[in-house]
Amino acid sequence: MSHLGERVSALVDGELNHHERDRALSHLTFCAACRAEVDAMRALKNRLRSLDGPAMPADLTMSLLRMSEPGGPLPPRERPFPISSASRTFGGAPIPSMHSVAPPDNRPRGRAGGGPRRTRRAGYVAVGVASAAVAIGTLFVAGGSGPSPRVVPPVDMFANQHRNTAPYGGSATPTFSPTP
Amino acid sequence: MIRLPATLVLAAVMLLGLVVGSPAHAARPDEPEGDDTGLHLLREAAIAGRTRGYSGTQYVTTWGRSGSGAVSSVLEVRNVPGAGLTVHTQPSGLVQRVDPGTPAGGMSTPSETMLEVLARNYRVMAAGGGRVCGRPARLVHVVRADGTVAARYWLDEAGGPVLRRELLDGHGRVVHAGAFVDLTLDPARKAAAPVSAAGGLDLGETPGLLARGWRFPAALPGRLELFAAHDASPGYLYLGYSDGLSVVSVFVQPGVLDEERLRGWHARQRNGHTIWIRDSAEQETIWASGGHVYTVFADAPADMVDAAVAALPHEPVPAPDLWTRLGRGADRLLSWVNPFG
């Protein structure tokens, strides 16, 4: 029997049928080269199984979260690269965690209630405040400074009415006339 | 036992009945007011002042607040029954037809209502006789509750008008005097029994005034009672007070007193307030209170006028707040753009 060749990986993964596995194991009893290759393959696969599964891309996660809450408040952005993210490595290289990078805002601009809408609302408020200020200022100026009209009693007319009113004379119209 | 004749017994019973039933203890028919023995004399003089024709010359003097200054005038008067009293004032030369019951007419013909008020506040007592301008007169005293004399009247004994009238203050000083220096009575005419003027109150507008926001006292110190209240153009309130003897007129205007334009008036401090006074026959007083201007004229003793003025409002002029000024501005803007305003 020739060397195992490409069947080494299938043997290690248990993918050979019963007959092929017996023939492969019979060959390993006398072929030292194939035994070494099978050992190396098993060691490699064991090392790969010991690693964590690949993390979900952060951009994809944040995009999904934002799409689930349109217009709602954004999750807090943690930046830049907290220390805990350095513990996640792949082959010695750090792996960015879910909150380690501020994700871009991929929500549709028309539904997000963000910049342009807020700007427009602020514009409305500014125009309203300015209009109210102009109206109040106009009323204030038009109201003048005097609380009431300034008067000087028409003394002659009052004196004439006093002199020509009979006490307890009844409801008859007083007979006074303006002083010439 | 002696039996008296029946006729003698009957005569004795009748005599006893006459004595017991005698009205000697009751008021005489010409004195129905009890202690006010001079009230009917005043009533008769008031009637004569309106119904008798006469002419003459009067002098009138009023002493001011200080007691030193006095204002005098000479009046040529002529009364024609049915036509009224004409007064020619010297030295002003003013000729007026006046009501003899008014201050301009010497207040010599009080109405029946005023006499009732006078009797309610004073005792009106006959006090003997005297002479005025050569005519015999009956003297009547008007006495306060404390016994001081508030007024003296000399009434013509020949059925004429009041010959002399004096007002006195609480210290017994004469503050006002008006008297004939000559008088000519027209012959009395036979006519129906004259009656005095009924008179009455002039308070019919009071509910409307209160509804329009006016507030005023019904009485002032010195037993001054409100007898008239009405508002008039151009926008002022008139209040008349009297105790049956004196008269105080109060005029209230909305606004702030323009003190710079008060010519001939003197500022005085009274109980922390500023009032403006001018010595005249009417004891004029002006002051500002709470957005209103008060003007008082009085034919009354100075102490009574001062007490009345002190009892009327003396509030500080309110500072204009923001809302008041904005509201006034809105009113003005609306009046400017209103084509029907």
Automatic annotation (TrEMBL), chain A:
* Top-rank lineage group of the source organism: Bacteria
**Annotated Pfam families:** zf-HC2
Q: Which residues cross the membrane?
A: 122-142
- This protein's name: Putative zinc-finger
* Upper taxonomic lineage: Bacteria, Bacillati, Actinomycetota, Actinomycetes, Streptosporangiales
Q: Which GO terms describe its molecular function?
A: zinc ion binding
- What are the protein's UniProt keywords? Membrane, Metal-binding, Transcription, Transcription regulation, Transmembrane, Transmembrane helix, Zinc, Zinc-finger
* Positions of region (Disordered): 70-119, 161-180
InterPro entries noted in UniProt = Anti_sigma_zinc_sf, Znf_put
Start and end residues of each Putative zinc-finger domain: 6-35
Automatic annotation (TrEMBL), chain B:
Could you name the domain of life of the organism this protein comes from?
Bacteria
- The answer to whether UniProt assigns keyword NAD to this entry is no
Q: Where's the MucB/RseB N-terminal domain?
A: 115-188
InterPro entries recorded: MucB/RseB_N (IPR033434)
Report the leader peptide range.
1-26
Q: Which residues form a coiled coil?
A: none
Keyword line: Signal
Please identify the protein, giving its name as recorded.
Sigma E regulatory protein, MucB/RseB
Give the organism, scientific name: Streptosporangium canum
